Amino acid sequence: MKASALSSLLSLKCLSVQHRSPSSKKVLFPRSLSPSNSRIHHHSPMASFNSEGARAPPAIPMPPPPLTKFKIGLCQLSVTPDKDRNIAHARTAIQDAASKGANLVLLPEIWNSPYSNDSFPVYAEDIDAGADASPSTAMLSELSRLLRITIVGGSIPERSGGRLYNSCCVFGTDGKLLAKHRKIHLFDIDIPGKITFIESKTLTAGETPTIVDTEVGRIGIGICYDIRFPELAMIYAARGAHLLCYPGAFNMTTGPLHWELLQRARATDNQLYVATCSPARDPGSGYVAWGHSTLVGPFGEILATTEHEEAIIIAEIDYSILELRRTNLPITMQRRGDLYQLVDFQRLNSQ
């Protein structure tokens, strides 16, 4: 499988059933999963589940975080057609969050541009070409260095190689670019009478999951629609993530129904923190964001949130809770690796 086709899938280990007759069938196993190669110990019911085999390759243990407690700032910003104003406004919000003690700042999806297919090509920046070609990320790099904070820079339209992407840049405390996530799952939906948006008209989907080690822990990155796909979050958890960050701009149709639900689901399923950041709501814009930026804990509890207006949320993350919750509910040890498996093709192919 080519790297460009990297994806995540949840697959049954029993791959196929061939029916020879109504009373006879043959189950075909991959060689590594056949009963003769199984590591099942019949004296232990838990061992017979082969929980480690539920992840391929086996999950990476969550590393000790570089710090136990810190503050995160979620900057729910208004966005206008004035790009310079948007950049200056984001700068002020980041400085405000840092002054309130935030070690990590998260910005919204598409914070430097109106959210529309017409705007993406106009506001797009060539991130890889450097500061002159990307004033938005130049500002993020400068502030992360000056303020000595980690910034998960929401997302902006990116131009690269003749294509457009919806991209999130992560900057370390030295101002260096640590990672760039291109939105993997494009927002192509059609709910008649409510909302239709086809992101793929202008944008190209990213091809790789993005997990990054920072001075505030190991962070998995997704952008908006990426949160709907539990496989991506599970891969981040299997790679040892402490926190998932999703800049997102849910709308007035799906926001009330799914925004909080999906955040709590991703946090609960994977027993880690989930942080989201939305643009503030502008009823007069072509695309109206739901707002409600939120921090969710590893038990699915809402730790901090807001409504739809501009806001800067400052909340504490305590990583010591992760091990506690995983001890309370030891689901990682209870998975049925004898029945199903999540395959991380990127890791598998790199071995």
From TrEMBL:
Keyword Metal-binding: no
One Pfam family, short name: CN_hydrolase
Region annotation Disordered: where it falls in the sequence: 26-62
Regions annotated as coiled coil: none
Limits of the CN hydrolase domain: 70-319
GO molecular function, one term: hydrolase activity, acting on carbon-nitrogen (but not peptide) bonds
Keyword line: Hydrolase
InterPro entries linked to this entry: C-N_Hydrolase, C-N_Hydrolase_sf, Nit1/2_C-N_Hydrolase, UPF0012_CS
PANTHER family: NITRILASE-RELATED (PTHR23088), OMEGA-AMIDASE NIT2 (PTHR23088:SF30)
UniProt protein name: CN hydrolase domain-containing protein
Species classification: Eukaryota, Viridiplantae, Streptophyta, Embryophyta, Tracheophyta
